[in-house]
Amino acid sequence: MIPVLRLKGVAKNFGRFVVIDDVNLEVFEGERHALIGPNGAGKSTLFNLITGRYSLTKGVIDFKEKRIDGHPPYKINRLGIARSFQIINIFKEMTVYENVRNAIVAARRCSLQFTRRLASMDGVRRETEYILDRINLTSFRNEPASTLGYGQQRALEIGLTIAQDPELVLLDEPGAGLTPEETKEIIKLIREVTAQKTLLIVEHDMDVVFNLADRISVLNRGRIVATETPEEIKRNKVVKEAYLGGFFDEKAG
Amino acid sequence: MSPAVKTFFILLVLVLAALFPLVMGKFHTYLLTEVMIYAILTVSYYLLLGHTGLLSFGHAAYFGIGGYVTAFCFLYAPSIPLPVAFLLAAASGLVSGLIIGAMLLRLTKIYFSFATLAFGQMLWAIAWKWRSVTGGDDGLTGWSARKVAVPLLGSFSLGNVTFLYYLVFAVAIVSIFLCWYFTKTALGNTLASIKSNPIRANFLGINIGLAKLMLFGFTGLIAGVSGSLFILFKKMASPNFLDLFTSFDVVVMSVIGGYTNLLGSMIGAFVYVYLVEYLSSFTDRWQLIMGIFFVLLILFYPGGMAGMLRQFSKRVGFVKGDRAP
Amino acid sequence: MESQLNMVPVLFLHGLVYGMLIFLVASGLTLVLGMMDILNFAHASIYMIGAFICYQIVQWSHSFCLALLIAPVACAFLGILIYRGFIRKVHASGHVNELLLTFGLAMVIMEVIKWIYGTTPLPVSVPALLTGSLQLWSDVKYPVYRLFILLLSGTVLAFMFYLLKKTRLGIAIRACVQDGEMASALGTNVSLIFMTVMGIGAWLAGIAGVIVAPYLSVYSGMFADMIMDCFAVVAVGGLGSLGGAFLASILVGQIQSFGVIFLPRVSIVLIYLLMVLVFTLKPSGLFGKKE
């Protein structure tokens, strides 16, 4: 099987500070792949590398067998990779409807159209309303995004990510800061919206991880120390050491 | 405010403006002409600052370039009809907007503001020094009595205050409408999203550089048109029309009216012109008073007059919002 | 051509003198910019106020020394006042408003000065001790006062260098310029540091204003002349970088000095061309933080 996403020998330094050190990772089509690891291991940095925000110091990143490292974020997005952010990164002053619409307009490649009124584009409107429905925010469509509750903002964050129908979805701690009820809802939402897609998810919440993931990779000190199924990960001594106790004992066990 | 009420008000204003010269004397007609020319300029500036969040201190560059190009037409190719001169001014504004814009693309916030200041100053210095072409400090003159042929209505002189008023009025309606329409397009929305969250916009697949470039081109075009009208109005072209004081005037007008609002920009032009006119007849220190007024606005009413109007409308119930007690 | 070549060492010294003056003003500007992303237009106004206070003190007391002692301190207070009274109020409503405010303040200050003193340049005589010229080497004479400027600014800068590199305050300042959030998280009182930097920056600008008074005289256009050179220095050197600002100041000083003589018709545009070059090739400046 050919991996949808492949990282080979990827490294990233900030000056003398090595954040990512020789990462090799393969994510296959339709897979739900979780990336876990202690704080500061470099998970968000890895996302930033994949999506073009940072440049690689070493190594290669392939998407569907083609190199994507070195491209700017907007080009990588257009290839079919979308990401969410650990710290909610929505268009705060715009309404929920406008937020989603931004994603749709960009996906339909008409973000630079200047001859027609945006309001008259029916296709855009339909798709936007469809996405709003999928993330259950239709009743909030005209509210400014900043007035939404935290859980709803998280849902919108995911909405922006999947609105463009990407092949590869990267979710960066989508459950951060949610209550247990909200977490259940988010897991359900993630399952639904990533149904036919490939998912790479960073999470600390083990409930989410063990509920969703087909395979789990563990990132520690800039390296992948293990890539296995959830059952194997639970038994893996190396992984346990990486967390220096306490991580697994708390939750799934 | 419902669309019907809004449309009513717009039509009312247009009708009043159309009747203005017939009711008021030459002096006020002259002033309002200046207001309309500045209104075109500030509305083009609104697209940069209010709509996209780019604080430019060099907007006068396109204003001045448009003016000079029109002046060149009048002086070196007088047989070119006025509409063509306008189009050339617009084209020159567009081109300079694109060229300068291309160099501004990767700059954000403070760097951007610096750079616009630098470009504006550079162009002013060129206009000032290049006497052989621009007349240097003395500027260019020679079209104050030029005749313009209007189909079906005969020929009018640029010295005719009433004619100039209606000419500017017509161009203003078209230009301001185009700017308004611009904000309603997908490109306009994209720019607003860039203002709101440029990082997310990038990650959604938006080519921010290209969007900004198109913005720079368009605002340059409109500013060029405004500059073209200005030299008709002032009967001269001068390097001063490119200098930082003119650029600062645009900023001041925008702030007075409320720079986050298209209507505010127009109000700002109106208030500024009349304020300067009346203040300067009272005192030599009118610039100081304007400066203090400006600082007070930023401190206490950054929404400008449009912001104050909005608050007032909310209280009175014209606009949906929390009714103040 | 001979005489022009002979002028080179003198022009170089002119450039150095002017460059040092710019650096005194720009250093405060770039630190504040690097720390809090506030472009303080009014900083160059403080330079101008320093010059006018110097003029006034010399008028009253005939003592340049007194002016040199008092004016910069007054400027320091003024700098802190501007921050606490104005800038802080507007910080919350965003970048654009901050810029507009400092810009407005600068305009008001300029108008007030025009009102009180008019627009004609006011002379301040070179203190008796420092008049005359010094023979530097074969047929090159240089005014003593300008050498004094070099000496004084050099001393001040050495002191600043020591402050920043060797004292705890200096380390705290550098930390805040590098990463204000981090410094705050580590326990530094960023707000206090910031006020200190504003005060020191304003003090330096005041010194520059005092020492430039006998050199270029005192006039309301000083603000405009200095602000563009300052901006050029900060843009070229990089926001927040003192080293960059220093090098850029020398460069700008030399460009102004040599440009006026060798390329008189385009000299006025040279600074802007330099800025444009930097903006297109390396937008963050020679040593600036990369965004």
**Helical content of chain A (DSSP H or I, runs of 4+):** 25-40%
The helix/strand series of chain B, from N terminus to C terminus, equals HHHHHHEEEHHHHEHHHH
Q: What's the CATH topology label of chain A?
A: Rossmann fold
Strand count, sense and barrel status of the largest sheet of chain A are: 6 strands, mixed
Which CATH class of chain B is shown?
A: Mainly Alpha
Rg of chain A: 19 Å
Do you know the CATH architecture of chain B?
A: Orthogonal Bundle
**Helix and strand composition category of chain B:** mainly alpha
Sheet/helix structural class of chain A: alpha/beta
Average per-residue pLDDT of chain B, rounded, comes to: 90
Biggest sheet of chain B: strands side by side, in what order?
A: 1-4
Q: Report the CATH topology name of chain B.
A: ABC transporter involved in vitamin B12 uptake, BtuC
How would you describe this protein?
- The complex is a heterotrimer of chains A (253), B (325) and C (291).
- By secondary structure, chain A is of the alpha/beta class.
- Chain A contains ten helices and ten strands.
- Chain A has a single domain, classed as P-loop containing nucleotide triphosphate hydrolases (Rossmann fold, 3-Layer(aba) Sandwich), CATH 3.40.50.
- In chain A, helix 3 crosses helix 4, helix 3 packs parallel to helix 5 and helix 5 packs parallel to helix 6.
- Chain A is globular and about 55 Å long.
- Chain B has 325 residues and is mostly helical.
- Chain B has a single domain, classed as ABC transporter involved in vitamin B12 uptake, BtuC (Orthogonal Bundle).
- Chain B is built from 14 helices and four strands.
- In chain B, strands 1-4 form a two-stranded antiparallel ribbon.
- The radius of gyration of chain B is 20 Å and the shape is globular.
- With 291 residues, chain C is mostly helical.
- Chain C has a domain of 199 residues.
- Chain C contains eleven helices and two strands.
- Chain C has a two-stranded antiparallel sheet with strand order 1-2.
- In chain C, a hairpin with a 2-residue loop joins strand 1 and strand 2.
- In chain C, helix 1 packs across helix 9.
- Chain C starts with a helix and ends in a 10-residue tail after the last helix.
- Chains B and C meet through helix 5, helix 11 and helix 13 of B and helix 3, helix 4, helix 9 and helix 11 of C.
